[in-house]
Structures are given as C-alpha cells and as structure tokens.
C-alpha cells in the first residue's frame, strides 16, 4: 500500500484556454482543477505521494492563496520547467530514490475526471507489466491520406478498432521511468509512454473512459461540470 508516487505536472500556462491565469486555477464544482485532479489520486489507497511541478510564476499562488488545499492533500509542490517533460523530470528528481516508491504514475493536472475504477485498473496493469497507460477508443472514423503523383489528395479508411487516444495516468515501475528520462536525448516525445518505448520497453494499455478528458479550451469546462456532477451522484 502507498507504493505509488504520482507526478502531476501543473507547470503549463494554459495558452489555448486563454484566461489571465493558469487554466488549472479555473474551478470545477467550486475547487480549482488541479485540486480536483489531485483529489481523485489521493483517494486511492495505493498512492503514497503526490508531487506537483508548478511554474515559477504560479509558485506564490500555491504557497499563499492555495496553501490550505495543498496541505489538505499533502501535495509536494516543486518547480517545473519549460516543457512538460522538463516538469516531469523535476518531479522525478523530487522523488529521487525513495525506496518506498515502487511505481510512478504521471497524471496531467488538467485531467480532473479520471474515475476510481480506471485508476485501479491501470495501477493493476502496471504492477503486472511495469508500463501501462489509460487509453480511450477513437470515437470517429479516421482516414489516412494517400498521395499519388497526380497531386490530388485521396484518403483511405483506417481501421480504428485497434487505435486508442492516449490518456493519463501513465504508470511505470519507478526504475524504468527514471531510466527512460536519464536516456532522454531531448528529442521531443508526445508523452511518457513514448520515452519508455524508446528504451525498448513495451507499454500496455487499459481501455478507460473517454470522460477522462483534458481541459484544454474554455468550452471543455461545461462538459467537465456535467461529467463531474454525474460522477458524484
Ligand atoms: N505542463 C507542465 N509543464 C509544462 C507544460 C505543461 O507541467 N511546461 C502540464 C500542464 O500544466 C498540464 C499538462 O502538462 O497539466 C498537460 O499540458 P497542456 O494540457 O498542454 O497544458 P498547458 O501546456 O498549460 O496548455 P497549453 O498547451 O494550451 O498552453
Ligand atoms: Mg501544452
């Protein structure tokens, strides 16, 4: 119990959300998004630590305005970096070689809607395979372009039954994720799973709910409120 440490990157600025402050300060059912995300994780008996990388400019807000909420979930606030993987790296440095930590879960602070069931399922899979992420089925029809020499753009249908939208948490054995980041040469990666793949370790996937959406645009909040209300009924 308690052998999972969570790194919850929160050091972005929320450009696409377009508010004055970090989008993570917007509220969902009366509490900031980052708090709602952490709350879901803190409810799991398997989670022993929550490390949250934040930006330099947001640090004062977490130390003052939000200090009670931070303390309530025993969140460890650390300084994040310019890119998401810099922030995850800062989280890894904070965890260091804590011998109580057997698995590390990386979960976007912008995903406040992950269900307890999906969390338990991805944690269980990671304990079996050392690397597991949540994924949602692709909802729409996908077409791939085929370019012929006549310059006309044509497309063909892609079978989407074996495609997933990658979600978080992404959960790895602690040593594996530390190694993937040590070997990281700076070439951008789309997520932590890709970095782990690059050092030759396969990543298993657990089919999760598409309700676990990432708040990216302001209009995502209304959807999130509806899903949240339903999940707490
Ligand atoms: N993140 C981070 N450090 C960065 C960039 C992003 O910790 N340098 C975090 C964000 O705070 C967010 C998660 O990574 O919780 C996913 O990133 P995204 O949804 O893209 O958030 P932002 O980068 O803040 O938004 P945008 O790309 O619109 O600016
Ligand atoms: Mg971003």
From TrEMBL:
Query: Would I find Cytoplasm among this entry's keywords?
Result: no
**Which UniProt keywords are listed?**
Isoprene biosynthesis, Nucleotidyltransferase, Transferase
Q: Hey, where's the site called Transition state stabilizer on this chain?
A: 16, 23
Provide the E.C. number(s) assigned to this enzyme: 2.7.7.60
Gene3D superfamilies under this entry? Spore Coat Polysaccharide Biosynthesis Protein SpsA, Chain A
Q: Name one Pfam family in it.
A: IspD
Sites marked Positions MEP for the nucleophilic attack: 160, 214
The record's annotation in InterPro entries points to:
IspD, IspD/TarI, IspD/TarI_cytidylyltransf_bact, Nucleotide-diphossugar_trans
Any GO BP: isopentenyl diphosphate biosynthetic process, methylerythritol 4-phosphate pathway
Q: Which GO terms describe its molecular function?
A: 2-C-methyl-D-erythritol 4-phosphate cytidylyltransferase activity
User: Hey, which pathway is this one from?
Assistant: Isoprenoid biosynthesis; isopentenyl diphosphate biosynthesis via DXP pathway; isopentenyl diphosphate from 1-deoxy-D-xylulose 5-phosphate: step 2/6
The catalytic activity, as recorded, is:
2-C-methyl-D-erythritol 4-phosphate + CTP + H(+) = 4-CDP-2-C-methyl-D-erythritol + diphosphate
What function does the entry list? Catalyzes the formation of 4-diphosphocytidyl-2-C-methyl-D-erythritol from CTP and 2-C-methyl-D-erythritol 4-phosphate (MEP).
In which family does this protein belong, per the annotation? Belongs to the IspD/TarI cytidylyltransferase family. IspD subfamily.
What name does UniProt use for this protein?
Answer: 2-C-methyl-D-erythritol 4-phosphate cytidylyltransferase
Report the source organism.
Rubripirellula reticaptiva
